């Protein structure tokens, strides 16, 4: 089906395990896969297996769906207090 995957302004941190540094994975080599990375941050050796896309994939957003992407360097600050919600039957989240 020749899929295209566009990753934009994401923050990838690879584990210390040498064999687990790739962010992308595909089963088999059938079809023409295109991976695009635009403004992503890769830490601790994280990488796309193959960045094959050239120029960039354009999403088919209409005017109402279009949005500005924040710089990937902001991800740690934006998610610094994220985590599991501590909810129970007696405590409403």
Automatic annotation (TrEMBL):
InterPro entries: Pectin_lyas_fold, Pectin_lyase_fold/virulence, PEL. SUPFAM superfamilies: Pectin lyase-like (SSF51126). One of its GO terms (molecular function) is pectate lyase activity. It comes from the Eukaryota. This is Uncharacterized protein. The lineage of its organism: Eukaryota, Viridiplantae, Streptophyta, Embryophyta, Tracheophyta.
């Amino acid at each position: 089906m020749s899929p295209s995957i566009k990753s934009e302004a994401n923050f990838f941190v690879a584990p210390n395990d040498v064999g687990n540094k790739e962010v992308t994975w595909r089963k088999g080599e059938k079809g023409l896969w295109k991976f695009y990375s635009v403004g992503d941050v890769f830490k601790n050796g994280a990488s796309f297996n193959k960045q094959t896309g050239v120029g960039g994939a354009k999403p088919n957003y209409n005017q109402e769906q279009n949005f500005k992407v924040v710089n990937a360097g902001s991800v740690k600050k934006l998610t610094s207090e994220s985590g599991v919600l501590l909810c129970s039957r007696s405590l409403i989240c």
